[in-house]
Design a protein that fits this description.
Layout lengths: L7 H11 L8 E3 L1 H7 L3 E5 L9 H10 L8 E3 L4 H12 L4 E5 L5 H9 L3 E4 L4 H15 L2 E2 L6 H17 L5 E5 L4 H13 L4 E7 L4 H8 L26 H8 L2 E5 L1 H13 L11 H7 L9 E5 L6 H9 L2 H8 L1
Parallel strand pairs: 2-10, 3-4, 3-6, 4-5, 7-8, 7-10, 8-9
Antiparallel strand pairs: 1-2
The protein binds pyridoxal-5'-phosphate.
Pyridoxal-5'-phosphate (PLP) binds next to helix 8.
């Protein structure tokens, strides 16, 4: 493995650094999935993390590692990373400016502001928001905290993997979400260093799976971004990807893709059988099992990575009417 990879030592250091910032989320048995697949299936309830996703781990670690002279932090992210960075910065008394386009819905804006950051609206696309974030770095002395391709972020996300091994020492199969690959890279590094024989299987949505297309091509490539129920898994991996592409390539045993109906079935199962409210991205591990895309061998852990979903969409998924609702809105 390349020396530039984040290592278990980096992850253990991150764990000590962010211990006061994050919740050690529980892992629980899933009686219904265990019965269905005749192996113990357990769920890591990371959607209950503060801010509603694991992203607080990486953001807290990156903010804690900043030099004391920094003027503030910035990112062009409207979703879970923006939320997490806002809170991580506020807790350490560092100004945060989250750059976003005017297309971002009002509720997401309000959430960023509630967490204590400035939501800066620039331009009509995420690209223009990115330009403003880069300007803050170049001209105003801000530090950019990217959502995945950053060693401190990957190490922070990896702390989830160390918890999984402690909570389920006999784990043999692990299902982990993949978008930009920060979560999967960190978690796979922790788990495979501690337990080399664990199968770590990435899961993405079929619509716009940038990491899968890049792994197939042998280098980072761009794919068209499409609307999906797993919206937190959308977006590219960056053509100049430095870290997560190589780590996912070398550490994941497989990367499976799911249809929208399969993702919806995962959200519905989480609610009806496990009594957990998760967003589309959070449900893809369960969904991959239910869809038969991954055959669980031995004790199996699926990570529920986030819960930030609009409740009207969640209701429509549970009721099976989300396609109609989407067509009416279009
Ligand atoms: C960001 C995110 C992911 C994917 O994480 P990456 O590090 O980008 O691969 C998965 N689930 C949720 C809920 C997320 O917010």
């Amino acid at each position: 493995m390349g020396t530039a990879f984040v290592t278990l030592a980096d992850i253990e250091a991150a764990r000590a650094r962010i211990a006061a910032d994050i919740v050690v989320t529980p892992t629980v048995d899933s009686p219904s999935l265990s019965e269905k697949f005749s192996v113990p299936v357990r769920l890591k309830l990371e959607h209950r993390q503060t801010t509603g996703s694991f992203k607080l781990r990486g953001a807290s670690n990156a903010v804690a590692l900043l030099s004391t002279g920094t003027r503030g932090v910035t990112a062009a992210s409207t979703g879970n990373h923006g939320r997490a960075l806002s809170l991580a910065a506020k807790r350490r008394g560092i100004p945060a400016v989250i750059c976003m386009s005017k297309l971002v819905p009002e509720n997401k804006l309000a959430e960023i502001r509630r967490l204590g950051a400035e939501a800066r609206i620039v331009g009509a696309s995420q690209d223009e928001a990115q330009v403003e974030a880069e300007r803050l770095v170049a001209e105003d002395g801000f530090s950019m905290i990217p959502p995945f391709d950053h060693p401190a972020v990957v190490a922070g996300q990896g702390t989830l993997g160390a918890e999984i091994v402690e909570q389920t020492p006999d784990v043999e199969t692990l299902l982990i979400q993949v978008s930009g690959g920060g979560l999967a890279a960190g978690v796979a590094m922790a788990v495979k260093t501690l337990r080399p024989n664990v199968r770590v299987i990435g899961v993405s949505m079929a619509r716009g799976a940038a990491m899968k297309a890049s792994l197939d091509a042998g280098r980072p490539i761009e794919v068209e971004e499409k609307e999906t129920l797993a919206d937190s898994l959308g977006g590219g991996i960056g053509l100049d990807n430095r870290l997560t592409f190589a780590m996912c390539r070398d550490l994941l045993d497989d990367l499976v893709l799911l249809s929208e109906d399969e993702i919806a079935a995962g959200v519905r199962h989480a609610y009806e059988q496990e009594r957990e409210i998760v967003e589309g991205a959070g449900a893809v591990g369960i969904a991959a099992l239910l869809a038969g895309k991954v055959r669980p061998k031995g004790p199996t852990v699926a990570v529920l990575s986030g819960r930030n979903i609009a409740m009207d969409l969640h209701r429509a998924i549970v009721c099976g009417t989300w396609r109609d609702a989407r067509e009416r809105a279009a």
